[in-house]
User: Fold these one by one.
Assistant:
Number 1:
Amino acid sequence: MIVLALLACGPDATAPATGQLAFGLPLVNDGQLYAGVARVDITPSITETFDDLDGDYYFDGCPTDPTASRSSCLEPFDDANGNGRFDAVWMGGWGGGGRAARGVHDAIYATALVLALDGEYLALVSLDAVGLLEYRTTRMRQRLDEAGFAADRVVVANTHTHQGPDTVGLWGNLDELITGLDPEYQASLEDAVHDAVYAAATTAVPVAPTQGAVNLVNLDPAYSGAPFGGTNPDDRMLGLVRDGRDPILVDDQVLTLALDGANGRLATVVSYSAHPEVVGYENDLIGADYVGVTRALIEDDAGGTAMFLPSAVGGMQSAHGGTLPAVDEAGAPVYDDAGERVFITGDGYEYARVAGTLVAQAALAAPVDDTPWDTLSVRSTAVMLPLTNLGFQVALRTDVLDQPWDSLVTSNECPGMGTDPEVIACVSTGVWHLQLGPISLGTVPGELLPELFYGVPAEPGMESAAARSTDPRFPHHPAACDDADWSTCREQETDGDCACEDMHAAPYVLSYDEAMPALADTLPGPYRAVIGLANGYIGYAIPEPDYSSIANAITGIEGNHSEEWYSGGSRMAPAIQDGWLALEP
C-alpha cells in the first residue's frame, strides 16, 4: 500500500538537509518561524438542476428521465448536455442522499497553511468538504511528495460542511446504488490542494505566533441549558453544542492560533467541534455553513486569511435543532422589551449566521499567549482500521465510495482478516501528532466522540444505568432500561421492556482496556486539540464498549446509536487509540 511506504519512517521522521524545500519554503536553523497561507476556490459548477415540485429540497425524479414521463418519476430535471442523465452536484451529509444543488450561497475553499521552523516543516490543509476518504488524501499527499514536500508532513482535513458536494459517495441515491461522486470534481480537489500548498510555501514569511483557548461553557450562561447551570431554554445545550447522542459530553473548546507578519495578520487558525450542518437539510445551495461566517468575520476583524479545523465532531456535536442566543448584524446580544435575552431556534441561514458569529467572537478573544515557539515537530505512524460495517462492504463493492476495493488491505496484514468473520477489509491509514510550540494536535481519520479525547467524568450516570433516568447527560435513556444488561442490549433489539437502541454502555468507559487513557492525556502542552477528518474519513470513532452491533443500515435500527450506521466499525476507536499511544512522547 502507498500509505505504508509514506509512513514507514513513522515517529522518527527527519527533516531534509538545511536549505530550501521544493516550492521555496525556507528550511534554516535560525530560530525563526516562517508561515505562508493560500486559498483556492473549490466551488463546483452547477450545470443541471431539477424542478423541486414538492418543495422538500430533494430530487424525487429518476436520473434517466429528464421529463419525468414515467409515473414513478415525480420531478423533471434540466438535461443541459443532452446525455439523458441527471448530472447533478449531489450535496454531502444528511441521511441517504438525494439533495441536488440548485445554486450557490457562498463560495467554498481549500485553504493551506505551511509552517517551517529550524528545518522542520508542515502543511495543514482544510477543505470545505463533508470528508475525503483515505484513497483521495493519499493521492494528494503523494503528489506533493513527488514534488519534494514529504507526504508525512501533509495533513489534509475537512471542515465537514453538510452544504458542500458529496466527496465521499454516500449521498447520491443509495437505494439505487448511485454514487454522489463527480470524478472530475474529485480530481480538481487534488489540483486545489497542490496549488494551495505551493502558493502558501512560495509566499512564506517570518511570523510571530499568538495562541489561546476558551471553553464556551465558561463564556456565557446563555450558551448552556438549565441542567448545566445556564439560561438557554434548550436543556440539551452545553457550550453551544447540542449533543445528540447520550451521554451529553461535548468538545466546546475554541482553540485559536494567530500568525502575524511584518504587514499585520497573515493567518488565523480556529479549531472547534460543532458540525457545520446548522443550515439544515432543507437547503439546496452550496456553501460552507456557519464556518464561512466564522472565517469572514475573523478576516474582517483581524485581517489575513482564516482557516477552520474540525476537532472532536462526533457523537453528535452540533447546534442544529437547538437554541442559540440571538446576536444582531454587529454581533451584539439581542434583548426583548423586558430586557430578557432573545433566543433563536432551529436551522437556516440566519441560524448559521448567529452560530458563526458566536464562534468567531470566541476565536477572536482567545489568542492571548504570545509564547514564542521553540518546537515544530511532525510525527506519524501507520494504522490499520478493520472495517466491520456491512453497509460499507456494500458501498465499497459497488464502487459507490471514493475508495476502490483494491486500495483496501485484505491480506493477513489486516487484523482479524480471515479469522474474524466481521472483518471485511482494512483501511491502511495513519495518525499524526503535531507539536506547534505550546500547541499539541493529534489527527483522527474520522469523527471522534469527545469523550475519547477528554475522558469520562466521574458521575453516577456514567457508572450505572439505574442512575440515568434523572441524569441530564442521558436525556434519551428510558426508565425501562434502568435494569437492562448492556451486554445483552448491544447484541439484540430489546432486553425485557428496554428498547436497546436507546441504551448505552453501563458502565460507560472508553475501552475494554482499563488502562487506556483519554487521548488528550497523551499530548503535552497547555493547548491540546484533535484535528478530525484528517488524512482520511471512515465515519464515527465510537468507544468500543458502547458500539451497538445491531444498529446499522442493514437492520435499519438506529435510535440513539445512529452513528454506528456511518462508522467503519467497532474496531475503529481501538486502532486509533493504539496509534496515538505509539506516538506518545
Number 2:
Amino acid sequence: MDLAELLEISQKEHSSEKPVQIRCCVAAGCLSANSQAVKHRLEEAVKTAGLAEQVQVCSVGCMGLCCQGPLVQVDTKTESESLGTLYEKVTPDDAASIIAALNGGETTVQRGDLSHPFFRYQMPIVLENSGKVDPERIQSYIAAEGYQSLYHILREMTPKEVIDAITRSGLRGRGGAGYPTGVKWATVAKAIAKSKFVICNADEGDPGAFMDRSVLESDPHRVLEGMAIAAYAIGANQGYIYIRAEYPIAIHRLQTAIHQAQRLGILGSQIFDSRFDLKIDLRIGAGAYVCGEETALMASIEGKRGTPSPRPPYPAESGLWGYPTLINNVETFANISPIIRRGAEWFANIGTQKSKGTKVFALAGKIRNTGLIEVPMGTTLQRIVEEMGGGVPDGGVVKAVQTGGPSGGCIPASAFDSPVDYESLTELGSMMGSGGMIVMDQTTNMVDVARFFMEFCMDESCGKCIPCRVGTVQMYKLLTKISAGKATLADLELLEELGDMVKYTSLCGLGQSAPNPVFSTLRYFRDEYLELLN
C-alpha cells in the first residue's frame, strides 16, 4: 500500500457519506444501557421513513457525557454549515421520534447542550476521533487522516528525527509518573541488541478510571499507529498490548483493528513498501493491579507470575526477555500520531511550561456530569469540577477530589484554584496518575476514603516485599480502629510512622504510593481523624 491507496480509501469513505449522519455511541457505558438496540431501531426507522438515501446511522465510540447515555448525535450538513443535535438517554422507542424530527416533526427526546462548559472547555487531541469514527472499520479511521503519520515517517523521517520531534513536543508519559517520552524513546533507541520490543500498557486498574478503556473502544487504530511509529523510532519489530480481561469490548475491537491493518499491509512485513516490519499481539491480563507496574507486566507477558523486580536495570536496558523494551500507556501512544501530523511545536504550545499538551480525565463520584473529558494541562480543578462537571447534584457541596487512584491523594475544595499539571498536583500531595478523578461531597468521611484505598492496596499487593505485604495490612487495621472510634493518639502516630516505612522501603510503586491517600487526608482533614480518637 502507498499514500495514493490510503487517500483513495479516504475519498471513497467521504464520498459514501450521506447528508445526515446519525452517530450512536457503542462504547461500554452506552452499550450497557442498550445502545445497540437503539442503533438497530434507528436503522429501521430510517428505512420506514424512506430516508435510506439521505440518512446514515453509524456506530461510534465514546461521546464523553457518559451519565446521559445512550447518546445519539445527529449531524446535518448544509452548504454553509454543519448542524449538530445531541440526544440524551435515548431508548429504542425514541428512534422513530428522532427520525421524525429530521423532517420538522416534534420530538420529546431529551436534547443535550453542546455549548455547555462540559463540551466547550475541552480540547480533543487524544479524543479527537472518539464519537466520530467507527471503531470497527479501518476505512473510517483512514478517512480521519489515519495512518498518514506512519506513512510520512517511514518515507520522509529517520528514527532519530522522529525521536527529536517527540522530544521537542514536550510529551510526558500519561501513565502516571510523567517521565519525558522522548528521553525514554532515545534511551531504548541507543541500546544495542538483536531484538527490541514495544509494549502498550493497557492494564488500567485504578478505581473509577476508564480513560484507556474508552480510547481503545473508540479509536483502537490510533493506538496501533502510535505504537508503530514508536517501534520504527526505537528499532523494534514486535509489539505487545497488555490489556486486562475485564475489558472484553476493547479486546474485541483491538483484535479487529489488528486484523484489518494486517490485511491492508499496514502491520506485518514491509509496511508501506518500506524495510520496516512490525507485528503486534495482545496479551490478556488476569486483573492483578500490580501488573500495571512495568516489571510485573513484563513478567506476566513472559508467562511468569506478575510480580515486580528491582530496578535497575530498567526496561529500556533490559526488559522483556532481557532485551531493551519501550513501555508507554494507551494515552501516550494516542498522542503520537497528531504530534507527527501537526508538528512538535503545535503540541508544545498547549499546556504549561513543564506539562505540555492535554490530559484525559474520567470524572466520577458525587458530580452532576460524569464522563470523559480532555482539557489542556494547566486547567484548574475549579473549572473541571464546578463548571465542566457541574458540581455536586441535589444542592450538595464539593468537599474534595481524589486524583491518581490509590497512588494519589485527596485535594480539598479550598485548593481548587490550582492548575492541573504534574508539578502542581505533586505539591498538593497527590499526583496526575492515569487520569481518574473522583469527586466527594460534604457527606464523605475522609477517614473511610483513606481506609477504602488502603484496603484496595492491601488486597492488590503481590506480597513479594515485606513492607508492602505487611505494612498495608497494619495500616488498614489502624484505619479500621480509628474509624470504629477505638484508637488513641498513639495509634495515629503509629499510622504515620508506618506510612513512612511503607513509602520508603517498598519494592515497587504500589507500596511506595499506597500511603498517599492517608498522608493527604491527614494533611487536609486531620480534624476528622482527631474527632474519632479516644
Number 3:
Amino acid sequence: MNDNNRALYLFAFIIALGGLLVQTKKTGPSSEITNNEIMGHIRYLSHENRSGRHPGTRGSRDVIAYLIKQLKSYGVRPGANNSFIQPFDITTGIGLGGDNYALIDEDSLEIEQEYIPLSFSSNGETVGGLVFAGYGFNIDEESLRWNDYDGLDVNGKWAVVMRHSPERGNNHSPYSSYSPLHKKMLVARDKGAIGIVFISQIEDSSLYPLNYVAGYNNVGIPAIHLSNKVADKLLGGFGWSRQSLQETMNRSLESINFDIRGKTLKTNIGLKHIKTRAANVIGEIRSGNREYRDEYVVVGAHFDHVGKGGPGSGSRKPDQDAIHPGADDNASGTAGLLEIAQKLATQKSKLKRSVLLIGFDAEEKGLLGAKNFVKNPTVEIDKIITMINMDMIGRMKDSTVTVGGVGTSSVFEPLLDSLRSGRGFNLSMSKPGLGPSDHAAFYSDDVPVLFFFSGFHNEYHTPDDTWKHINLQGTTDIVNLVYDVAYHLTRVTRAPVFSEAGPKQAGTATGRRFKVTFGIMPSYGSIEVGVEVDAISKMDGPASRAGIKKGDIIKSIDGKPIKDIYEYMDRLGDLKRGMTVSVSIERDGEEMTLDVSF
C-alpha cells in the first residue's frame, strides 16, 4: 500500500472514529435494560455506605439524591409540583421528655430503674389510690368467664394488674387474646380507673422496654410498669407476693382482687414522639398525545429498608446489630424502576398516556409513602389507570415469577398471557389486589394494580440480603416484562376497568380472630383521634349498610370510646353475630350516630 493510500485510509478512519465518538457522547448509556446497569444500581443501593436505607438517615438521603440524578439524566421531568420530592413526616420512635416522676406515698421511684412508662401511656399528672385487679381480665364468653373487677371499686384509682395470663406461653390459650397490655389498659379505663400499673410474673426480670408501636396515640390513661422489687414491696404489706398471687390464680383459675388501702400513687408522665422526614421520589414522562396524556400509568418500587435492624424494625434477626443491605428488598425493584424509566423516556414520542415513576419511602413502616401519595396525589387518582409495583424481584427461582392483582381488571390476564410467550420463565398469576406492599394503598382506592414478586427467601430482612445472592438474569427478565406491560398500557385505547378482587382490609395488627367483620379498611397511618376509614372493604358489609363512608372517623362503638387503631381492634373483638350497636362517627367535622348490625 503506497503512502497516498495510507493517508487516505487514515483520514477515513479518523472521520469514522470521530463520528462514533460523537454518537456515543450523544446517546450515553444504552437505553436497553441490561444486566450491568441493573447490578450497578443494586450494588449502589445496597452498599454498606447506605446503612440499610432507613427513612430519614444519611443513607436514605443519598438514595433519594441518586434516584433524582438518574431520572434527570434520562430526561424525566419532576412529578411532584415542579419537584422530584414529595416529603412527609413519619413517627419513628418514642422517648422520655419533660418532667417524669412517680411517688408511692412519699417514696420517689427512679425512672428506668424502678418504673417505666409504656408507649401507649397518656401524658400528664395523675394521683390516686391503688387496687389490685388480678390479670386485668373482663371476659364474658359462653365457654370462658373471668372478671377481675367483680366487686372491686376502681373508680378514680389506679388498677394494678399482672402481665400475661394463667397460661403464659400457650399461643392457643383462650386467655391469649385478652392478655396484651393495651387490651388490659382499655378494660381498666372502661371500668373507671384513672391509670394502670403493670407488675411482672415471676419469669420476668426486667422492665418492659419503651418501644414505639405505630398506631398508639397516647390518648388513653397513664400506664406504667413497676420493677419487681417495688412491686413486691407494695404487695408485701397485704400478705401477698407476686409469686403467691401468680401461683394461686394459675392453680385455681379464679381471680384475686383487693384494695391496696392506705397507698397512693402520684405520677407525671412525659413522653414524646420522635419525628423523621421521609420523601417519595416522583418523576413524570409526559405524553404529547392530547387525547390521553392526562391519564397515567404508575410504575413504583419502594427504596427504603430496615436500617441496622433491632427490636421492632421488622428484622428477622432483631438481636443482630448489623446493616441490613436489602439487595432484593427492595434494591432490586428500585433498580428495575430506574431501568424502566430510562427505556420509557426514549419511547416518549410513542406513548399515548403519561407515566409516573415513583420511588416510595417508608414502605417497611406500613406502606407510609404509598399511603401518603394516595392521600396527597400529584395527579387525580381516578386518572391513574394502573399502578404497577415491583418489590423483591431479584431472587427468581425455578424460573417462576409471581404477578399479583391480576383480578383487579379483566384485561390483565389476557394481556399477561399474550406477553409471556417466548420468555424463559413462567408466570404464576394471583387475582387478589391486596398484598404486603405499596400497591395495596392504590387497590384500596379502586385503582387496578399489578404486583411483580420473585418470592421470599431465607435472607429476607436479615443482614444476608446482599447483591451476591441476586439472580441477575432473572431480575433483568422480570424488568423487561414489566416494561412491556407498562408500555402496552400507555398505548391501549381502552383503559383497564377496576374490579374488586378479594378483601381490601389486611389482617389485624394483633393477630386476633374476630367473630364479626366491620367491613372497612382502617387507616394505620392516621393521626386522628379515633379510627379513620381508609376504604370500605365490603360493599355489602355492616359498615356500608349503616352508611359509613371513606374518610369517616369512628369515635366509639357501643358507647365505648375509641382513640386509635388498637382500641378499634379490641372493641371489634367484643362484638358477636346478631348484635346491633351504635357507632359514633365524625364526618366533615360533624358527629353523628349510626346503628351497625352484624
Number 4:
Amino acid sequence: MLTQEEIAHATKVLGREPNETELAMLDVLWSEHCSYKSSKRWFHLFKTRGERVYLGIGEGAGLVDIGDGVLVGVAMESHNHPSQVDPYNGAATGVGGIIRDVISQGCKAVGLMNCLRFGHPSKPRNAYLLENVVRGISDYGNSVGIPMVGGELEFDDSYDGNCLVNVVCIGVVRPEKVVRSSARTPGHYLVMFGATTGRDGIAGVSFASETFSDEEEENRGAVQIGDPLAKKVVIDTLAQLVEENLLDGLQDFGGGGLTSCAGEMAANGGTGVVVEVEKVPLREPGMTATEIVISESQERMLAVVAPEKLERVLEILGENDTPHAVIGKVTDDGYYTVLENGEDRAQLPISLLVGGFPVPEREEGSLPPRSHGISWYEEPEDYASAIIELLGSVNIASRSWVYSQYDQHVQANTVVDIGDNAGVLEFPLNKRLAFTSDCNSFWTLLDPQQGTANSAAEALRNLVATGARPILIADCLNFGNPERPDSYAQFVEAVRGLGRFSHDFDLPIVGGNVSLYNESEVEGVVHRINPTPQIMIAGIYELGYSPIRRNLCTPWANIFLVGETLPELNGTEYQRLKLGEVRGFPPAYRPDAEKRAMTAMLEAHKAGLIRSCNNIGRGGLAVALMKMALYSKYGFKLNTETVPGTTETLGQALFSETSARYLAEVTETNQPQFLEIMAMYGVPVCELGLTVADRVADFGKFRVSLEKAVEAFETGLTKYLE
C-alpha cells in the first residue's frame, strides 16, 4: 500500500488530492514489484553492454545477437507470492507472463525453464506446493507448445512459508521483426487483444510487495487465473501481426495491468495516453474504472497501431476470433488519462506515475561474522554410505519426477534433454545454444557476495562442461524485506557479487527481475528465505559442435580432475548432512582460476579431446563422479590418493565443493594434447583413474554399489511425493 509520504508527494506534485482511481494506479506502479524503488539504485554495478547485446535491460526481454541475423530473446521473472497462496494458478500464470514478455518483443517463444525453492518435502504443505506448482507449470507449458529445457530445484526450511517460483522464457527473432515496448507517435491507436478482463489479479503487484501474514486465504483474489488455450491463440495471432510489420509498439498486460502496460509504453516513448475504459472487453459485469485499469487478468496484449494499419490489424484479430478493442490513443500531453463514457476518472503525469515516487531510504546493515575453520569436520566411518546418503539427499537426488511431467520436444528443436548439465536448443542456421541456471542459497546465506559470484561461476561451469562458450546472463533476485537492514545488506552484497562476476567474465546481464519481501510472519515471528539470486547463463557452440554429455562414454579412458581441490567443507551438502545446518565461510569465488580452467576446457572441447565431462558442484568430487556413472554402461576405478591440493584426508578431497573444477573423460590417444592445453593455461590437473567395462564404482580404498546408489538417487525425492 502507498505510504503517507508517497500520498503526500503525489498530492504536492498534482496540486490536489489524488482520487480513488489515481491512488490505485499509483499504488501498483509504485509497488516494489513494478518500481524497483529499493533495488535499481544498484544496477549500475552490472555489466549490461556488449558486442552481442541488441536490446538490454528495460523492456520485456533482452535480445542478444548470435550472428547471421538471428537474435535470441531471454526474460526471467518471479511468481513467488501467488504460488505460495495458489500454487497451481500462481505457477501457471508465472509461465504465461514470462512467455508474454518474450513474444512482446516480436520473438517466437522456443524454450522455457523454471527454478523452484520449497521447504523440505517431508512436510505435507511443502509437498503439496511442489506437486501443484509442477502441475501448473507442466499443464500451461505443454498446452501452449513450448518445450521445457532446464531448471533447478532446491529445498530448505527457510522456504516453508514462502516458496519461490522463478521462470525463464527463451525466444528467437530477426532484427527487422523486433517490436519495441514504447508508444512513440501521438495519434496512433491503442489496440487491446487476447482474453477479456476480469477481477482476478487485482492488486497482485501490491500483494507481491508485502510480507506474508498468517492469513493466506485473503490474498487469493490477487492471484491471476491462466488460460493456456487463449495464450496459444494470442501467440499465433501475434506471429501474424509481427510478420506483416503491423505494430508500432507492443506490451503485455503483466504486473500492474493496463496501468503499467500503457503507462510504461508512454514513458518509453516520451508521450501520453488516453484510455476509454468502457471499451475494454470485460468478462465480469459491473467492473469499475479502477478495477479495469489495475486488473491483472492474463493472456492480454496492448498494441500501438498506426491509423493506416488499423484496418488490417482488426481484420486479423477478427479472423482469429481474438477478443479485441480499440481502447484509446497515444497523445502528446505527457499524461495518462482515464475516461469512462467521456468523463475523467484519472489524469496523472506519466513522469509521476512511472518512476516519480519519492525514493525511500534504505539502511544497509552489517552481516554476521563467519569462520574459515572446519573444526566440526569428522571423517566418515563409511565412505560408501556417506556418498549414497548424499546422492539420496533432496538437494542432490534425481529431479526426473519433476521434468518427466514436462514436454521437452514439442517444437523438435531440443538437442539435450533436461537432467544433464545444460539444456540445448537448435536455432536457425544450425546454431545451438545451451541454457542453465544455478543458485546455491546456502553459500549466499553464509556470504551473499562470494556466494552469488560462486553460484554464477557454477552455472558457467555447467555450460563449459558441455562445450558451450557463455555469452549472456539473466537473473531473478529473491530476497526478504528491504526495510530491514540485515535483509537489505544481503541484497546489496549479492548484487555486488553478481556485478563483479559479470565484469570478471565480460558477460552482459540482459534481463532480470527483483523479488523482495519474500518472508512470512507467523505469530509475530519473521521467517526470511535464504538470499536467492537465481542466475541463468546461456552459451553458444562452435558451428557443427555436438554438446558433450555427462555419462561415461567408453572403457579404458583416463578420468582427469581439472583444477585444485581445497578443504572447503563449510556451506557444503556434506556439512548439512552431518550438522543439519550450514555455517562458516563457504567455498571461495576464484575468478582467475575459474577463467583459466574455462579457457583450457573450451580449448580442449574445440579440439575434440573430451568424451564426457561434468562440473564439480554440490556434493563435491564424489557426487560429480557418481553422476557420470549412474546411468552409463561403464564404471570407473580410481586412485584417489592423487587428488591435488591442500586437503588432508580422503573425505575432504571427496566432499569439498571448491570451485573451478571439472571431471573429464579423455582417451589415451588424446591424453598428451589434453595435458598440453592444461599446462598452457596453468591449470592443475591429475589423472584420477580409468573408466572400466564393468559397472563398478571403485574409489580405490572402497567401492560404492551402483545399484544402491541409483536407488538412493531415484527415490531421494519421490519417497516424499507418493
